[in-house]
Records
---
Amino acid sequence: MHKINNRITAREVRVVGEGIEPQVYNLATALRLAEERELDLVEISPTAVPPVCRIVDYKKFLYELKKKQKEQKAKQIQVTVKEIRFGPNTDEHDFNFKLKHAQEFLTEGNKVRAYVFFKGRSIVFKERGEILLLKFAQALEEIGVVEKMPSLEGKKMFILINPKKKK
C-alpha cells in the first residue's frame, strides 16, 4: 500500500507530477504544494533516496494502477504442459492418434511432455522407448522444438517439446 500525505515519514522527498518541476523538497513544502492543487502527495518509490512522491488524485492513481495491472494480466500467456503416455510396444495406429493430439496441443501454444512408461520387466526395452520418442519428436519437428532429449527417470522415459515461435 502507498503512503499518502501525512503518513509519509521521510524528511525530504523528490516530488514529481504534472506541471511540477521534479525537485527535492522538504516534506512540509511538498505537502503544501499538493494542498494548493487540491491533490494528494503519494509515495510511489519508498526505497529511493530521497523517496519519490507524486502529486496526484489518489483515487485516480489507484484506478489507473488497477487498469495497468489488468492490461498486463490480459497480455500474459499461460503455458501449460500436456502429457502424452506411450507404452514401449505402442502400435502405429495409437502412435498416430497421440501424434494428432500433440499437434493440437502445440498449435494451441502448450508444451508437450511425452513419456514411455515401462511396466514390470519391459524396462529391458529401453531402446525401443527411446526410438519411439525420437520418432515422435521427428514427426512434430515442423511445429515443435525439442527442449529436452529423451531421458530415463525411474520407470519413465521423458521427452519435452515446445511449440515453435510464430514469426
---
Amino acid sequence: MKLQFLGSGDAFGSGGRFNTCLHLTGARTNVLIDCGASSLVAMRQAGIDRGAIDLVLLTHFHADHFGGVPFFILDAQFNVRRTRPLVVAGPPGLPGWYERASAVAFPGERTLPFMLDLFEVEIGRASELGNMIVTPFRVRHDDRAGPCLAYRIEAEGRTFCYSGDTEWTDSLIEAARGADLFVCECYTYDKPRKSHMSLATLRGKLPDIGARRVILTHMSDDMLGRLQDVEFGTAEDGKVVEF
C-alpha cells in the first residue's frame, strides 16, 4: 500500500502547506481521505489521475478537510469528464453538508454525468467500501462540524489508521491498535490546545496503541518550528510512504 500526503497543513496554511488530503492507493485501492479547500490544486501539482479515484472519505466538515469536495466534483464533470460512479463517504449528515457546500461554491442545479453516492458511515460499525473494510470511531474535535471521526482501514493485507482532527481520546487506542501505519494529527508540541493533539500528550499514549509506524500531520507553526525535537516521522506535502 502507498500513502501520499497531497496536503499536510492546517486550516491556516502554516508552513505554506496545502489543506489536509491523503491519497491511499494499492493494487485495488484508490481513495482520497479528506479533501480540503486547496486539494484540487495539490492533486494537479502532484499529477494525480483524478478520474481513477473511487472513493472520497471524509472525517468531518471543516473546510480544510471538506471544502475541496465541490471543486473535485465540478472538475470531475467538466475536465475529467468522469462517467464511472464515485462514492463520497463521511459522517452522518453528509448529504445536507454536501448540498450546502455545493450551493455556496457553485450555485444552481446541476446534473452529473456519473452516479454520485453520498454514503453516511455508521460510527463504530465496519462498512465495506470498495475492497476496503472501513471502521469509523468518534473523536473529540468540534461537533459543530461533525460528528468528527477517525478511521481504521483494512485493505490488501494492511491496516491504516488516520486520526482526523482530535484532542486525545481513548477511542484512538482501538482505532489504531497494531496498525501498520498510524497518521495522527499533532497540532502543537507541548501547548494544550482544545480540540487538537499535542506531542507531549501523544508520546505517553502511543505505547498503548502499538502501531508499527507513526507519522504526524496537521501541524501548526508551533510544531513545525520544533521538528528537530520530534522522534517520529512527520508529514510534508508530496511525501510518499509505502507500508
---
Amino acid sequence: MLNSTLCYIEKDGKYLMLHRIKKENDLNRDKWIGVGGKMEEGESPLDCVIRETFEETGLALDEPKYRGLVTFCFSEGEKALTEQMHLFTCEKFSGSLSGDCSEGELEWVPKDMVLSLPIWEGDKIFLELLNKEKRFFLLKLEYDGDRLVRHRLDFAGG
C-alpha cells in the first residue's frame, strides 16, 4: 500500500493548487490538486508533507494541521491500487513561491472556485469537509477508472 501526503495551503481565501500537466503517465494528469507526494522510508506524515511541500513550492510550512486520512482504492480491469493519503491544511508558512515545479503549474485559486476545476470526484467530498468541519475524518474513496463508485465517511472519535 502506498502512503502519501497532500496539503492545501491557504492564503487570503485561496488555496495553492497544482495543475498536474508536466509528467507523462501521471494518474493525476490534467487534474488540480493540493501539494504533496509519496512518503519515503523512515518519514512520518508530518515529515513528508513538510519535505514535499518545500520541494514542490519553495514554501516552508510552519504549522500544518493534520485534518484527515483518505484511503483511495483504484481498480481498472485487473489492475488495482490502494493509497492512504494523509491530508493537511496550513495557513502559516514562510519563503517565496518557486516558479518551477516539476509536476505542473502552481496557482492560488479562490476557495469557492476550486470545486469548478477539473478535480477528482472524491476530492470534492474532502474539500467540502476541509471548509466546514474541524473534526478529524476518515474517508474511503473507491474508483473504477476515473469514476467514483462508492465512498464511506467516518469521524474519528464518533
---
Amino acid sequence: MNILIVEDDYMIAKSISMALEDEGHHYHIANTAEDGMNAVREGMYDAVILDINLPDGDGFQFAKTMRRGQIDTSVLVVSGRASVTDRVVALRSGADGYLTKPFDRQELIASLTAIVRRANGHSDSRIITGPIIVDLAKHEVMIGKKRLNLTSKEYHILELLSLRKGSTLTKSHFINHLYGGIDEPESKIIDVFICKLRKKLADMTGGDNYIHTVWGQGYVLRDSASN
C-alpha cells in the first residue's frame, strides 16, 4: 500500500514509516496540515495516518476537509489523546479508525489493513476470487489448500486487484501502489508483472484466468474466469 503520514513529531513519524517499510508498504510524510492536504489531493494513497495536534491545524478539521472535498481515502487517527470524546469527534469528523499512542507496530498495521479492507467493501481479511484466496493479514495467497509462491511485487499487485475487485485499475494505480513515487519505472513493467502473475495463477487453476484486460484502460479482477 501507499500511505500518507501526517505527523509533525519526527520520532513518531520515523517509527510509523519503519513499521510500514517492514511490511513492504510505501509512504510519504507531511509535517503540517497544509502539506498533508496538498499531498492527499494530488496523490493516490490507500490510507492516511493522521495526528490530531499539527502545527497549523488539527486532525479533526483535516478529516472534515477531506470528506467535504469528496476525498474518500481511509483515515487512521494516531493520537496521544485517549479520551472517548476525542475518539467520537475523530470518527464523526470522517476518520475510519483511532489508535492511541504509544502503539504496538503490529496493532498499527492490523488497524491500517482493516480500515482499507472495510473501505473497499471486504468484511474478512481473506478475499476470495474463485479458487484464489488472498489473505491480507498473512500476506499470502492460497489456491485451494496450496500456497502460491509470489514475489513481493506480484503479491502486492494481486492484493490491490483483490481490494478493488470488479474495478478497472490503470497502470498508474499499480505504479503508485508498488513504488509510491520512488524510482518509478516505465508503466510497461506492469504488463510484465501481470503476465508472470497470470501464468502462476493459471498453472494452479487449470488454465483459468481471473485477471481481465480492459483494453486502453488497465486490468480488473473478476470472479468469473476466462481461458
